[in-house]
């Protein structure tokens, strides 16, 4: 189910009725003036909400997903500790949707292309467009930029 947030039409919520209603209530409670914020500022606030409150709905801002820093960083740490085979679907989605990579057909294909932590580190230094991932992410995707900065720190880039 898709639900447009009443207090800011730039925000769309996806999930069950219960999950979208809960997400909308939390947004209204914590950020009653979110419509006054720039996209970059709003994305950071929404990311914080996703990471601290029981938000199960997917949140999109102007059609682009807002990502949980907590989940992606947890997943990167797991991959660093246990190897690329421990990659979650969420991390795979983040890498191919936000970091300058094609899907490589599926998660297995992505792992075949980047089979080690050193390959992952090299990818963050120069993605499939020949750019450092941090420089590839548009300035308005502040939630993604924050995640990529932390990933670079974890991967010692």
Model description:
By secondary structure, this protein is of the alpha+beta class. The protein has 8 helices and 4 strands. It folds into 2 domains: 2-65, no CATH class; 69-154, no CATH class. Strand 1 and strand 2 (11-14) form a beta hairpin. The longest helix is centred in the N-terminal third of the chain and has 14 residues, at 17-30. It is elongated. The protein starts with a strand and ends with a helix.
Strand order of the largest sheet: 1-2-3-4
Average pLDDT reading: 96
What integer value in Å does the Rg equal? 16 Å
Shape, per Cα inertia axes: elongated
* Share of residues in helices: 40-55%
Distance between the termini: 40 Å
Number of helices: 8
Number of strands: 4
Output the helix-strand order.
EEHHEEHHHHHH
- Report the structural category: alpha+beta
β-sheet strand percentage = 5-15%
Low-confidence stretches: none
Q: What is the total domain count?
A: 2
Largest β-sheet summary: 4 strands, antiparallel
Short structural description:
The protein contains 8 helices and 4 strands, in the order ββααββαααααα. The chain has helices spanning 17-30, 39-52, 69-82, 89-98, 107-113, 117-125, 133-136, 142-154, and strands at residues 2-4, 11-14, 58-61, 64-65.
What are the SSEs and their pairings?
Blueprint: E1 2-4, E2 11-14, H1 17-30, H2 39-52, E3 58-61, E4 64-65, H3 69-82, H4 89-98, H5 107-113, H6 117-125, H7 133-136, H8 142-154
Antiparallel strand pairs: 1-2, 2-3, 3-4
Helix pairs in contact: 3-8
């Amino acid at each position: 189910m898709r639900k447009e947030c009443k207090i800011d039409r730039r925000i769309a919520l996806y999930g069950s009725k219960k999950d979208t209603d809960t997400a909308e209530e939390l947004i209204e409670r914590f950020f009653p003036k979110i419509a006054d914020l720039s996209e970059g500022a709003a994305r950071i606030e929404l990311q914080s909400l996703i990471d601290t409150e029981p938000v199960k709905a997917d949140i999109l801002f102007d059609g682009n997903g807002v990502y949980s820093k907590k989940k992606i960083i947890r997943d990167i740490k797991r991959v660093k500790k246990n190897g690329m085979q421990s990659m979650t679907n969420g991390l795979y989605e983040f890498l191919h949707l936000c970091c300058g990579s094609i899907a490589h057909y599926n998660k297995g294909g992505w792992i075949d292309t980047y089979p080690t932590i050193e390959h992952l580190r090299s990818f963050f230094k120069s993605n499939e467009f020949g750019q450092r991932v941090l420089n590839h992410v548009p300035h308005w995707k502040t939630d993604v930029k924050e995640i990529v900065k932390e990933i670079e720190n974890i991967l010692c880039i």
